[in-house]
Amino acid sequence: MFLPKGYRFAGVYSGVKADPEKLDLSLLVSDHPAVAAGVYTTNRMCGATVHVDRPRTPGSDFRVVVMNSGCANDCTGDRGIRDAEEMIRTAAATIGARPEQGLVMSTGVIGEFLQMDKIRTGIVKANEWLAGDEAAFEQAARGMMTTDTHPKMSSRQLTLANGKVVSIAGMCKGAAMIGPNMATMLALVFTDAMLEVKQAQTLLKATVDETFNCIIVEGHTSPSDTVLLLANGASCPEPLTGTDYDAFAAAFGEVCLDLAKAIPNDGEGVSHFVTIDVTGCKDREAAKIIADTIARDALVKAAIAGADPNWGRIVSAAGYSGIGFDVTKVGLSLNGFELFRDGTPQPFDADVVSASMRDHRDVSIVISFGDGDANIRYWTTDLTEEYVRLNADYHT
Amino acid sequence: MFLPKGYRFAGVYSGVKADPEKLDLSLLVSDHPAVAAGVYTTNRMCGATVHVDRPRTPGSDFRVVVMNSGCANDCTGDRGIRDAEEMIRTAAATIGARPEQGLVMSTGVIGEFLQMDKIRTGIVKANEWLAGDEAAFEQAARGMMTTDTHPKMSSRQLTLANGKVVSIAGMCKGAAMIGPNMATMLALVFTDAMLEVKQAQTLLKATVDETFNCIIVEGHTSPSDTVLLLANGASCPEPLTGTDYDAFAAAFGEVCLDLAKAIPNDGEGVSHFVTIDVTGCKDREAAKIIADTIARDALVKAAIAGADPNWGRIVSAAGYSGIGFDVTKVGLSLNGFELFRDGTPQPFDADVVSASMRDHRDVSIVISFGDGDANIRYWTTDLTEEYVRLNADYHT
Q1: Could you tell me which residues are beta bridge partners of residue B107?
Q2: Helices H / strands E in chain B, number of each
Q3: Which of chain A's residues have a Cβ under 8 Å away from the Cβ of B340?
Q4: How far apart are CA A377 and CA B4, in angstroms?
Q5: A340 and A331 in contact (C-beta within 8 Å)?
Q6: How far apart are CA A393 and CA A143, in angstroms?
Q7: Which residues contact B166 (CB under 8 A, 6 or more apart)?
Q8: Which of 210-239 (A) contact B at CB < 8 A?
Q9: Average pLDDT for residues B331-338, to the nearest whole number?
Q10: DSSP state of A64
Q11: Is B207 a catalytic residue?
């Protein structure tokens, strides 16, 4: 793990979650004022933290991000917004920063108010545990987990033209809305390089479009989805330019992709991790809509769970996506086996293809349209009985 | 059952399905030339029968509809289209009509060619069984079934201003794309009243929008979805006008609604039949998009299967539907219990609401937006482990 300089982390148990074995409150502190960018859910019923963070980013001079799991603070009206603001105020005061220097993320059950006494005590406790090492980073990643089975982290390091070494690290949580209660996708990526405010926002938005916006579990956009980028310049205070910026953007993209793919890969009940390549479309938007429709389709996903090489469901999903195409140019491969070409079924040994799906957790779908040069890659899950069991489970 | 005059029916076993206990080929014959209207799938990968029927309707002078189950004749290219045309030609010749007087519908497995020798023999056999009674009508309805657990039929009768009595009857099959292989929604509604060609098409389109287009199982639009309307004027040869037409349109709407609701109600693995009312929207299109998003949402559906009054998933689905609304005006009731009002969670006894969901197969969701007067009603299913088990099952 390459940890950027000038950051400290902590993850503690505050008491919001029922199980004291699980962490539920994290801090990330930047010892230098950091530029921050944010990309948020498009859900109209957006959570209190999104209300609070959205107008603050992009911006500079940030010092602290406070996160809790176990309670999403969604659908909690004005009181929820006041609570989110108080989380920031408390965290900032505790680490010796001003209230406007903080950001906040929450995830967990919807429609319940934060237990602010526990949150306050948790923040004070987390402050005592702050450290810049890998163990602390992992604790912080654990503190944002809900139904995740493991903390999700990634990092890269690169050397700038001036010889300075900068690092990028990130953590995320979530398996989309796959949790037994409302879950959320949260990600926090931070670097000791420096970026201009506008540059940070542009980079984050473009990268999210290629990574976090290309993963689907069941297609439910949570009210609190948030991706934050912090850049504090601790290793090189001048904003990146030219080839340094390009190399940084590539490494940043890799970190975000690692984190994004970790989400469907850890989806509850998931038995296959599916990569969907849509190729040869007129434009990227058309490719994205087709990929999105296939990735959401319950019948496609159920067939993959059952190792059923049911190519008909995949081409049919493309067919109802709303995108026009020439059927006689459509081709499809599944795990490398060509099942459909020029709009015509190809002879294949269904047992062999099925065995390949049964024997590999990773499944590859490539669907081609011969309409142009635009491609997209999506990542998704299968749909298992276990998924339904987990999400149908009624807990009082 | 009110059966329109001048029609005869048959359903037989042709050998396309493996199980000889199941019927797989049906004929509907009109002894008088009938006006026909059709509404078809919007799926780009549309099946051969849709290719053949679409240019024929709306039109007049139809005598026969031939239907088979067990093979959808989808994704079968030019040969599939030739086979569909031959089905019509054979059926027309067998009953003594011309080839242009026929229509065809197929449902079943995708990507396989029709076994035309069996289809031809089946048509001849069906012709021998043609009869105008209820038993024959039910046999025809059985012949179009795939994974349906029972034939789906409905009828109405009304008296015109001139004292003549006309009837409307219909049959349909399908549980959307819920079958272990590709399934399809097919419906055939016929009357002994008479309609103008344009009037028939307008009525059918408007009625489908309020009925068959308001049902969702998992949201997969099949390549062969077809709804046909036949009007032969056997009881009253003059096209309907004025209040007669209005009364007929209302009764026709009831028949279509009965048939449409029967589809999700018979969905495989379904444990709840869900009615979703979206009220107080700016326009019908907005209401439809919200209803559609809620009805497709895997998390909403899984929660209903588990009798979990998880209102957060429902309002969150509305939130990501893409429709703008004022969150502080949103309200939600589940089985008559008000759980959310003016954007704020209402206190409720979760065990009582859960018990109400567990104890009733019918679940009602009412979500209101206070933005206008437009409403829509949708019907859907829950999402059960059984659904996934059935649709993941790999048969060689």
Answers
A1: B69
A2: 11, 15
A3: 75
A4: 54
A5: yes
A6: 24
A7: B4, B157, B158, B160, B191, B192, B193, B235, B236, B248
A8: 218-223
A9: 97
A10: E
A11: no
Q: What 3-state class would DSSP assign to A34?
A: strand
A105-130 mean pLDDT: 94
Q: Is the dihedral of CA B351, B357, B359, B364 positive or negative?
A: positive
Given B218, B302, B345, which is nearest A392 (Cβ)?
A: B302
Query: What is the amino acid identity at position B235?
Result: S
Bridge partners of residue B250, in order along the sequence: none
Chain A, window 360-379: residues with a beta carbon less than 8 angstroms from a chain B beta carbon:
none
Whether residue B309 has a cis bond before it, omega within 30° of 0: no
Instruction: Say yes or no: ipTM exceeds 0.90.
Output: no
State how far the Cα of A146 lies from the Cα of A367, in Å rounded to an integer. 34
Q: Tokens representing B162? A: 């001139």
Residue pair A373/A280 in contact (Cβ under 8 Å)? The answer is: yes
Q: Closest Cα of chain A to B286: distance in Å?
A: 14
Cβ separation B298–A383 shorter than 8 A: yes
Whether A347 and A268 have beta carbons less than 8 Å apart is answered as: no
Rounded CA-CA distance A162/B86 in Å is 76
- What tens digit of pLDDT does each residue of B310-328 get? 898 899 899 989 999 998 9
Instruction: Using the structure block, give the residue that is written with the tokens 């702050």.
Output: A130
In this complex, the residue of A42, A305, A312 whose CB is nearest that of residue B75 is A312
Do you find a cis peptide bond into A58, omega within 30 degrees of 0? yes
Prediction pTM value? 0.85
Catalytic residue among A184, A226, A381, A384: A184
Residue type, B81: I
3-state SS of A101-159? HEEEEEEEECCCCCCHHHHHHHHHHHHHHCECCHHHHHHHHHHCCCCCCCCEEEEEEEE
User: Given the DSSP bridges, would you call strands B273-281 and B362-368 parallel, antiparallel or unpaired?
Assistant: parallel
A-interface mutation test, from B344, B388, B396, most A Cβ less than 10 A away? B388
Locate all alpha helices (DSSP H) within B226-276, ordered by sequence.
Answer: 242-265
Residues A369 and A325 sit within 8 Å (Cβ to Cβ): yes
Using only C-alpha atoms, chain B has a radius of gyration, in whole angstroms, of 22
The mean pLDDT of chain A is: 92
Instruction: Answer for the pair B261, B215: CB distance below 8 angstroms, yes or no.
Output: yes
Contact with chain B for residue A297, Cβ under 8 A:
yes
Stretch A142-164: mean pLDDT: 95
Residue in B109, B5, B1, B105 with CA at minimum distance from that of residue B49:
B105
Q: How far is A60 from chain B (nearest CA, A)?
A: 30
Q: What is the mean pLDDT of chain B?
A: 92
Tell the residue number behind the tokens 């060689």, with chain if given. Answer: B396
By the CB < 8 Å criterion, does A352 face chain B? no
- Asked if A310's CB is within 8 angstroms of B45's CB, the reply is no
Tokens representing B60 are: 């007049």
Residue type, B392: A
Contact B43 A351 (CB under 8 A): no
Please, are residues A72 and A223 in contact by the beta-carbon 8 Å criterion?
yes
Please give the biggest Cα pair distance in chain A: 69
Q: How confident is the model at residue A179 (pLDDT cuts 50, 70, 90)?
A: very low
Q: Which pair of tokens denotes residue A355?
A: 């065995």
